[in-house]
Structure formats: C-alpha cells, structure tokens
C-alpha cells in the first residue's frame, strides 16, 4: 500500500475511519478522557492487529480536517488521541495546528515507521518488527509501549529501550488474544526489570471503545 502524497500534501483532508469521545484505555494515560481520531491506512500489517478494518485507506472517506476539528471542539474535550492504522502515513500538521489554536492537547499512538508530522503533547510509539521505527521518533517519544506476544518480544523491547530518551515511560502490554498465556511471563519480567511497567487494555474490560 502506498499513500498518495499528492492527494493531501497539506493534511487538509484525512481518511477518517472513526471518531469518538471515550477514555484512554492503555499506557501512561489510562483512564483519562479523550477524543479519539482513527485514521485509515497501514502497511505495517501486524498479524494480531485488532483494527484491521483501518488498513485500507480507500475504504474510508477523505474528510475535511477542518470539519474534524470542529466536531472535536464541540465535544468539549481538552485532549485528542490520533491513532490508526498508522496515522503518520498522513501529514498531521494541519490537524495539530488547528487543535492547538483551540487549546486542545494532542496525543499520538504510532508504530513510528514514518517520519513525524504535527505538534504533539505526547508521543507514544509501539515499534513493530516487520516495519521498525525511524530513529528520530525514538529520541522524542514520551512513551514506549511494546506488545508482548511471546518471549522473544522482551528482547525487542530492550532494543528500543536503548533507543528512546531517558525520560521515556516504558510499558509492556500483553497481546490481547494471548493474555492468559503471556501475562505471567510479563509479570515475572517486570519483577526482574523494574524500569518497565505493565499496560493493560482496560477499555476492553470496561466494554467501551
């Protein structure tokens, strides 16, 4: 899959999969209210992805970014989480600048596989083996969240712990379908390596988006 960089060079339109006002369910900001924007398009292709419906951007309408900003503003939220798919396939400068004008904080969840665009209050990277992050995003990340499918993923997590800055928060998150199998391994790992914390997908337990 290739994004058409000539289609929306300034980010004036974005392939919107869904948008909703909910609670952050993972990582450092778990439990915080936020407005979520899910963008279409992803060529990272994780086998365990729970949002495959977002992969093909052609299946989702190109929406005027200004109208997205307007709905966000009317929701009354003070923060927005941009996710995907892989949101950095698209130019997010226009979206972020519009939200900043409204004094709305911006958060992104990304694999880091594409160069950073937009201005962010919080950058969470979740590196994937089949399409690793670009180095420059690791340096500025506020949060590193590594999905643990099996024991080999601990080595992957440590590799990227060495690439992020010293203030970056570190999380290991069990892959949802293997939770019962892998969580004991994660617990023991964190007990031995206390610099890490565990992230759980609590929104799934609360049955919210």
CATH superfamily: Aldolase class I
Shape estimate: globular
List the uncertain runs: 1-8
Distance between the termini: 27 Å
* Pattern of helices and strands: EEEHEHEEHEHEHEH
Q: Write down how many β-strands occur, each being a DSSP E stretch of 2 or more residues.
A: 9
Architecture, CATH level 2? Answer: Alpha-Beta Barrel
Strand order of the largest sheet: 3-1-2-4-5-6-7-8-9
Percentage of residues in DSSP E strands: 15-25%
Task: State the CATH topology.
Answer: TIM Barrel
Largest β-sheet summary:
9 strands, mixed
What's the number of domains? 1
What does this structure look like?
The protein is of the alpha/beta class and 209 residues long. It has six helices and nine strands. It has a nine-stranded mixed sheet. Helix 2 links the parallel strand 4 (79-83) and strand 5. Helix 1 (65-75) runs parallel beside helix 2. The longest helix has 14 residues, at 179-192. The protein is globular and about 50 Å long. The chain starts with 12 loop residues before the first strand and ends with a helix.
């Amino acid at each position: 899959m290739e994004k058409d960089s000539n289609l929306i060079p300034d980010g004036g339109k974005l392939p919107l999969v869904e948008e909703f006002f909910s609670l952050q369910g993972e990582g450092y900001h778990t439990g915080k209210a936020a407005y979520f924007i899910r963008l279409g398009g992803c060529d990272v292709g994780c086998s365990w992805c729970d949002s495959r419906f977002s992969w093909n951007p052609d299946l989702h309408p190109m929406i005027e970014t200004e109208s997205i900003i307007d709905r966000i503003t009317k929701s009354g939220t003070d923060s927005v989480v941009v996710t995907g798919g892989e949101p950095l396939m698209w130019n997010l400068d226009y979206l972020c600048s519009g939200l900043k004008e409204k004094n709305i904080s911006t958060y992104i969840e990304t694999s880091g596989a594409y160069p950073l665009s937009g201005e962010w209050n919080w950058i969470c990277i979740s590196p994937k083996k089949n399409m690793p992050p670009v180095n420059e995003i690791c340096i500025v990340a506020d949060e590193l969240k590594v999905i643990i499918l099996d024991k080999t993923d601990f080595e992957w997590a440590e590799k990227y712990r060495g690439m992020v800055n010293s203030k970056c928060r570190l999380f290991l998150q069990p892959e949802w379908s293997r939770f019962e199998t892998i969580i004991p391994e994660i617990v023991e790992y964190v007990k031995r390596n206390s610099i890490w914390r565990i992230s759980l997908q609590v929104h799934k337990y609360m049955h919210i988006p």
